[in-house]
Amino acid sequence: KALSSHEKALEIQQQSLPSNHPYLASSYNNIGAVHQDMGDYSKAFSYYGKALEIQQQSLPSNHPDLADSYNNIGAVHQDMGNYQKALSSHEKALAIRQQSLPPNHPGLAHYYNNIGAVHQDMGDYPKAFSYYGKAFEIRQQSLPSNHPDLASSYSNIGLVHNDMGYYPKALYCFQRALEILPQSLPSNHPDLAQSYNNIGLVHENMGIYSKARTFYERAIQIAQQSLSSNHPKLQMLRNNLERVKNK
Questions:
Q1: In whole angstroms, what is the distance from residue 42 CA to residue 37 CA?
Q2: Is residue 55 part of a domain?
Q3: In the chain, is it the N or the C terminus that has fewer CB atoms within a 10 Å radius of its CB?
């Protein structure tokens, strides 16, 4: 339904606007985002690329919309495992936003967080921890204590602790995230599913398989309400449950 609506919007704009109008770029980005959420990364990359091409022709080089497009392209590269390209895109996005935002603006935290995520995927945990820490510090200073972005920062730092084998610290971070999210998100939101999955992951790594199974099952129960049956994230949750059942 989201895809159909965004495509209708694009059709209307194509009839009445020049082909390099920034509004068209916005619609291409919207369509790309839906394809990304559906797990169709090649289509997402194609639409994000069209958006960036238009913006490069029609906007100044420090315009925030350009940063958003670089951010989108970086996210798809990351999903596809192209980490160096993802890192380059996210760093370009951060550099653009640093030109127009104060250093403690929560918008900057978003870009620090994205760079940290790529370093984490590359196995460079000290750099990941550094960038996640910058994002967390900004969010603590600028956001209310129940904001979901704070929960996201706790989760990200927890994942690095988990990867480094610091399981009690990881568990603390994940529990803090889970305390925050229900205050600001609907009960079937995928971020809640991910939060339960993270706690399950730590328990699995600590060898407490019965607790891990309980949290994985809860994660799947939530995710099934909001994701398509063949979505890669839902399949990942199911794989986690099967793995801990075997253990």
A1: 12
A2: no
A3: N
Q: For residues 176-187, b (16+ Cβ closer than 10 Å) or e, as one string?
A: bbbebbeeeeee
Task: Note the pLDDT tens digit of each residue in 154-187.
Answer: 999 999 999 999 999 999 999 999 999 999 899 9
Range of the domain at 240: 143-246
Query: Do residues 247 and 204 lie in contact, with contact meaning Cβ atoms separated by under 8 Å?
Result: yes
Residue 116 falls inside a structural domain: no
> Which domain CATH number covers 157?
1.25.40.10
Neighbouring C-beta atoms of residue 40, cutoff 10 Å: 15
- CA 157 – CA 169 distance, rounded (Å): 9
CA-to-CA distance for 235 and 247, rounded, in angstroms? 19
Contact criterion met (CB below 8 Å) for 117 and 81 = no
The answer to whether 73 touches 49, Cβ cutoff 8 Å, is yes
Tokens encoding 245: 């059942």
> What integer pLDDT is reported at residue 206 of this predicted model?
96
* DSSP code at position 167: H
3-class secondary structure, 124: coil
Residue 149 located in a structural domain: yes
